[in-house]
Write a structure and sequence with these properties.
mainly alpha, rod-shaped
Length: about 80
């Protein structure tokens, strides 16, 4: 059982060391950290674009609703005129 515990401790230590070297370099920023920042930036850009698309869709729906209301009102006015004649 002692050997199993020693091997487990060595594996955890090795994994930690490998993880640390992937995130640090001389300037404090390793390839894993740069990749993480690039992914974060990409998600931020996608989020911004989706918000823009949602806002555009909302504006388009608002315009379409206004146009439909106006068309219904004009049709109702035409029906009233036709009935009165």
């Amino acid at each position: 059982m002692n050997w199993l515990r020693i091997i487990a401790i060595l594996l955890v230590t090795l994994a930690t060391a490998i993880g640390a070297t992937g995130c640090e370099s001389k300037n404090g920023e390793g390839p894993a950290e740069r990749a993480g920042e690039a992914i974060d930036e990409a998600f931020d850009n996608v989020d911004d674009k989706l918000k823009d698309v949602a806002d555009d869709a909302k504006d388009a729906m608002k315009d379409a609703t206004e146009d439909a209301k106006e068309a219904v009102k004009e049709a109702a006015d035409d029906v009233k005129k036709a009935v009165q004649e």
